[in-house]
Amino acid sequence: MFDSTSFIEEAAQKMKDEIEDIAIIACSGGIDSTVAACIANSAIGNLLHCVYVDTGFMRKNETEEIKEMLHELGLNLTVVEASERYFEALKGVEEPEAKRKIIGEVFIRIFEEEQIKVGAKYLVQGTIAPDWIESGGGGRDTIKSHHNVGGLPEDMTLIVVEPLRDLYKDEVREVGRELKIPSSNRQPFPGPGLAIRCLGELTRERVEIVRESCAIVEEELELAATNGEIEIPWQYFAALLPVKSVGVHGDVRAYGETVVVRAVQSLDGMSARYSPITHNVLQKISTRITNSLKDSVNRVVYDITHKPPGTIEWE
């Protein structure tokens, strides 16, 4: 049986033994990186430099919320604004694996720059078991390259330390609760962020559409769960498809974007079943999205695919 208290003690001691110089860690605000940062902070203290990168692909109001949370946890935090850099690197790129590879390379280049600034030798990451399993290698097929695994460039100079590498999401959450981290029950959010929820071309306008759609999905499902209408899903979001269809605005023919709503129940993300959201709740989501984004979106659909055969995210 998994013992979170013993794991924290053992992981911290291992990091003390392994890291004898300055280390940096990518803190996204998600449970994986936050748990890794808190354990590292307890193990090596002032040797740890936490870096939060605003890629331009974060959810609505997320950057400010994450900055506040990480400061409250007592982490030594540097914020890097990199949205222009990411959009430029991804300009014209539509293929999912190519996006992930580019995001991974920009990610590590930013940290190499921070490494130079603070003289870091190590890169601590919140990599967990599904990340490296799904990224392939060692005889395994690549399901999707996680930017912190399959997306890392071969010529990187930082030594990677992954204290959570053998844990699954439910175990990481248990550790987070033991550490009293506020985001311990926060739903998973992919490292590449909204970049992989915006299928096709990545522009600021299209990313803003999926950002607003995700916010609406989250608000409506959380409200419905609070009201006892549904069980809160394990993960829930919206994705923007590279598909346009004919619609009607008033008496005028419109040609608009398509948003897909995704909500699943899972334990560790390795498999999942779609959540049976009520039609009443789905109707509210659809109406809000098409009203709020009426100049862009004219169709909302709900994904009822399990994992497998589908993945949870669309890219």
Describe the overall structure:
This protein is of the alpha/beta class and 315 residues long. It has 2 domains: 4-178, Rossmann fold, CATH 3.40.50.620; 197-302, 2-Layer Sandwich (GMP Synthetase, Chain A, domain 3), CATH 3.30.300. Helix content is 39%, strand content 19%. It has 9 helices and 9 strands. It has helices at residues 4-18, 31-44, 62-72, 83-89, 96-118, 129-134, 169-178, 204-226, 279-292; strands at residues 23-26, 48-54, 77-81, 122-124, 159-161, 235-249, 252-265, 273-274, 297-302. The strands form 2 sheets. A 5-stranded parallel beta sheet has the order 3-2-1-4-5, with helices on both faces. Strands 6, 7, 8 and 9 form a 4-stranded mixed beta sheet that branches. Helix 1 (4-18) packs across helix 2, helix 2 (31-44) packs across helix 7 and helix 8 (204-226) runs antiparallel to helix 9 (279-292). The chain starts with a helix and ends in a 13-residue tail after the last strand. The relative contact order is 0.13. Residues 135-151 have low confidence and may be disordered.
Tag the structure with descriptive keywords.
single chain; 315 residues; Rossmann fold; alpha/beta; 9 helices; 5-stranded parallel sheet
